[in-house]
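Students often ask what a holo structure prediction actually looks like on paper. The answer is less mysterious than it sounds. You provide the chain, you provide the ligand, and the output is a string of discrete structure tokens encoding the 3D arrangement of the protein together with flavin-adenine dinucleotide.
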Amino acid sequence: MNSSRLAHLRDSVAHVLADATRVTTGDSERELHSADVSFHRPRLPDLVVYPTSTGEVSAVLEIATAERVPVTAFGAGSSLEGNAIPIAGGISLDLTRMDRIVSLSPDDLTAVVQPGVTRTALSRAAGDHGLFFPVDPGADATLGGMAATNAAGTTTVRYGKMRANVLALEAVLADGTVVRTGSRAPKTSAGYDLTGLLVGSEGTLAVITELTLRLHGIPEHIAAARIAFPSLEAACRTAAASVAAGTTLMRLELVDAHTIRAVNAYEESDYPEAPSLFVEAGGAEAAVESDLELVLSIAREEGALDAVHERDADARARLWKARHDVAYATSAASPGRRHRSTDVCVPVSQLAEAVAVTRAEIERSGLVAGVIAHAGDGNVHVGLMIDPEDARELEAAERLADALVADALARGGTSTGEHGVGLGKISALEREHGDLLPLLRGIKELFDPHGILNPGKVLR
Ligand SMILES: Cc1cc2nc3c(=O)[nH]c(=O)nc-3n(C[C@H](O)[C@H](O)[C@H](O)COP(=O)(O)OP(=O)(O)OC[C@H]3O[C@@H](n4cnc5c(N)ncnc54)[C@H](O)[C@@H]3O)c2cc1C
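The corresponding structure tokens follow.
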């Protein structure tokens, strides 16, 4: 953008903000908004805007549409597919200063929040009422960003993804119009599900300015276990059988031996360096203990090598530390490299074979990487860290990701279980849903006729 156009845009935006210092063209702010945590090439926005109200978001979008300036919403910047990178420049619209919990309604098990509230901030506030917000992607992401990517994580096996936990939205369309979808009622059949459509739309259809979310009761009794197995397949078969047996587990996570080794190096710990399941059950004590015993007995039949189980909150936290440290341990083992995570998801009955193919494809690629899975949902990640400047590595990683997507689709699965399409999965989406592209493009055109909202993401 040339300097006179930029100065004009900055002045126009400053004029509609209550505080003109909340628009900046400063280098450090632009740099902070040029990347997410992935390997995708950063791109500086021309300016960064920090709205503090829906009215300001609306006014900024009205200007952006009039001036045909791209706008990319930005939360915590923790996405993994280049989702928040402003690849066409323009405005990075940072929603983190809209961070108010508007209301908590324990009687309705709901909360109304602004988009910049983080998941841990909401769970802390809900905890005062014996409630919590379950969706846990590991990173302390914003609820706006989590809704925009339809995030999931370790508790999806019991509580579902963001879409299952968003009842209503307030959102601003590209031209500045404010809309409200859904309602505070637990369910609705009122017309097309626009709440469900905006959840997962990655900021390409509208900017989310308020969310009505479901809360859940903190279970009265929780038990957790870490179980080591002789093989990845044995661990996966245990996970699939536990789901099929109808257990109501809250978490069912798989970490391979390669990754446990990285965790041991990072934590200076001595967890058994074997494929491991991390399991958590919550609810009434008798049901929890019987679910856990069922999982342990399936694990024993699969030749489990070692099992540790805990009830006390601190002991459970220590047990889970190995799983929670996976991302930090993986990063620490690869200084200077960036995340190039894969994200296929398959029917849980296919998990063991999909994971075996994943390990074989990693070996074939010559790359060094571990396998982590939200096993209860059949969602498999290769925890790959790459040097984005190394063309050979980039190509090998691309080939690996392609092979895993092909395998997942052949098993009736999907190319992305939770990270979204962003920049990295556009080809995979075309492969997965080629016949739907005209419909997807039509929706984009209807919501954003001038293509200003997060251009170049999801659809080419
Ligand atoms: C260590 C680590 C582990 C992770 N594990 C998981 C996991 O298990 N499961 C999982 O699902 N994800 C995981 N992620 C990815 C990431 O945390 C999620 O994608 C998260 O939902 C992104 O939220 P954010 O606030 O960081 O959004 P950002 O990265 O800032 O933005 C993500 C997308 O949402 C859009 N957006 C942001 N705010 C809004 C808004 N208010 N309105 C409209 N669009 C908006 C952006 O334009 C962008 O397209 C992990 C990330 C890390 C770093």
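The radius of gyration is 22 Å.
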